[in-house]
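Quick one:
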Amino acid sequence: MHSIGNVALLDLRKVAFLCSRKFPQEAAEKAYRWADAQRLAGTCVISGYHSPIEKEVLCRLLQGNQPIIIALAQGLNRLDPEWELHLESGRLLVISRYAQSVSHPCESKCYQRNKMMIDLADTVVIAHASPGGSLERLCSDCAGKVMVL
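Output:
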């Protein structure tokens, strides 16, 4: 695994957050309330922050000071400049299973990234899993640690 940031965050209790790209509006509203609660509680959240809801959850988490882990489905070659301050403060870790030469995520890389996050997390929170989608299939393999919002 490749990383940039505070690798000690991997030793913390972590909650993985995932959501399918297509989702009902009520899932978004629940996810945003959940994210605000995690920010206030100081929970370490790990996610790919790739789907629209996941991106908004990251925006809400970055407003706090709790630890955050971002798992990429590509190499660590294109990091958001907004993350620099959080990396320097030690509250952010960016991880990837892929070399820097991997410049674009694809469905199989996203699936592998999500599997890695679930393996690293103590608990998994799903805002929405599209019926028949890869996230639903992945979650069925680890039902004991999954909670649906």
